[in-house]
Design goal:
- The protein is an alpha+beta fold.
- The chain has one domain.
- It contains three helices and four strands.
- Helix 1 runs antiparallel to helix 3.
């Protein structure tokens, strides 16, 4: 894999994880939002990733695992955000007859956002982001060493 491919792959992963972190932050910010423009409580969002480029079929993925390793000049890898989907799990019903969004029985439907899950996802996304930064740094260090060898 070339220097440029490793940077391209890592930069696509950095962008994908940034979008994931933004989505997680949006979920946390709306954890108490009981009324949206669409009606009802906020619905938790999740990022779905896919390999860069065309949507691969199972057969093409299977075939690629049996083929030869990619040539140095071939484009390989990368990730992109396929879509951001709403989690359809129901929210939590809480008895609070004083809440402005309470139903006739005094229950309020809160978003389906679990702060423990969101914080765990945030840690995972942060670690992935840091790992890709380490790849970029390693590629940069290798390029610097190669240039130093070329000057000798």
């Amino acid at each position: 894999m070339s220097f440029w491919n490793s940077l391209r792959i890592s930069s696509s992963a950095l962008e994908a994880q940034r979008i994931r972190l933004d989505t997680i932050a949006n979920n946390i910010a709306n954890a108490e939002t009981t009324r949206t423009d669409e009606g009802g409580p906020y619905k938790r969002q999740e990022v779905v990733f896919r390999p860069e480029g065309e949507s691969p079929t199972f057969a093409s993925i299977l075939a690629s695992t049996r083929s030869r390793p990619p040539h140095l000049n071939e484009q390989v890898g990368g990730v992109e955000v396929a879509e951001i989907v709403e989690d359809e799990d129901p929210g939590q019903l809480v008895y609070d007859p004083t809440h402005p969004d309470a139903d006739e029985d005094g229950y309020v439907l809160y978003p389906n956002v679990n702060l423990v899950v969101e914080m765990t996802n945030m840690l995972s996304a942060t670690r992935s982001y840091e790992a890709n930064l380490a790849v970029v740094d390693a590629a940069k260090q290798m390029a610097i060493k190669a240039l130093q060898i070329g000057r000798s």
